[in-house]
Amino acid sequence: MKKLQDKVAVFVGGGSAVATVALKHFMDQGAKVVLVDVDEKYFGRSQDLRAQYPDRIRTFLGACTSQEDMEQAMAFTQKEFGKIDILCNYAGFHGGGDITTVLAGQWRIAMDVTCLGIYRAVRAAYPYMKERQYGRIMNFASIGGRANRGVPVTYAAFKAAAIGITRALALELAADGITVNSMAPASLDTSAFERIPEKDSVPMKRPKGALKGGPGATQGGSFIPDRPVANLDEIAHVIVFMSSDDSAFLTGDCLDVNGGQFMQP
Predict the structure, then answer these.
(1) Section 142-165 average pLDDT
(2) What does the pLDDT read at residue 189?
(3) Terminal CA-to-CA distance of the chain, rounded, Å?
(4) Burial 52-61 (b: 16+ CB within 10 A, else e)
(5) CA distances from residue 118 to 62, 158, 166, 218 in whole angstroms, order as listed
(6) Contacts of 159 (CB under 8 A, 6+ apart)
(7) Are 17 and 43 in contact (CB under 8 A)?
(8) Is the dihedral of CA 160, 70, 61, 46 positive or negative?
(9) Which residues pair with 32 in a beta bridge?
(10) Considering the entire predicted model, what is its pTM?
(11) Which residues make Cβ contacts (< 8 Å) with residue 146, sequence separation at least 6?
């Protein structure tokens, strides 16, 4: 039997490159998926998949920065597919800068999109999962929130916050049969996808000479020979595991998928 047969998932930030590849694997495993994102242009990445599986994929325009949008997205999913089994929070924000250049507004947006975005989506999905005493929630974090890494201070902060809120939610929701986990990949191969600028994102400009050195935790590059970055299919396999009943005894954890760049005892 397929791992996600007849399961219903909501992808918040569902137009991202990672979510698009994960969508293919969810289709292969028998799931139904509602893609939620802030602009129709992000759904262009999944156009072929949506044409291939018209009965199992829906799209919904909504922002994780709006509680009303998240509640409407979950209500839409319930109406279309009758339940919500899985929530995957992919929405992120990459703008920022170093300590001297980061704009104050970037802090607000970064936390609003990622940390509060997770909270809003989970809050909106929770009643549907609680009613059935079942749920799988996956929050997409990053090695940037786990270890030394040359990322904007805003990015490091909100990715660490995503991991922290995952642990708190896991404790709170366990009694309702809901597991909550995060994953923290390192550099990913997104070369197959055109970069779409994020709303209100200010590209990071690093001072010359900052973080000098070769491959390692601050510069990227795994310790697996000839594998400096992960491909998105590898990441999608982990997401399928975290969303399936195979992970029933896993909650409050952060799965590090980084080729050995960050190892815990």
Answers:
(1) 86
(2) 76
(3) 35
(4) ebeebbbbbe
(5) 14, 11, 9, 26
(6) 114, 141, 142, 144, 145, 146, 151, 184
(7) no
(8) positive
(9) 8
(10) 0.91
(11) 159, 160, 163, 184, 254, 256, 262
* Phi, psi of 264, deg, nearest 5: -105, 150
197's tokens: 């600028």
pLDDT for residue 211 is more than 70: no
Going by C-alpha positions, the residue among 167, 175, 101, 103 that lies closest to residue 135 is 175
Average pLDDT over all residues of the chain? 89
For residue 137, what are the β-bridge partners? 87, 180
Instruction: Give the integer Cα–Cα distance in Å for 158 and 168.
Output: 15
DSSP string, 119-185: HHHHHHHHHHHHHHT-EEEEEE--GGGTS--S--HHHHHHHHHHHHHHHHHHHHHGGGTEEEEEEEE
- Reported confidence tier of residue 248, pLDDT bands at 50, 70, 90: very high
| 156 vs 144: CA distance, rounded Å | 5
| Cα–Cα distance, 236 to 23 (Å, whole number) | 8
**144 — phi, psi (to 5°)?**
-65, -20
Residue 256's SS3 state is: strand
In three-state form (DSSP H/G/I as H, E/B as E, the rest C), the secondary structure along 224-238 is: CCCCCCEEHHHHHHH
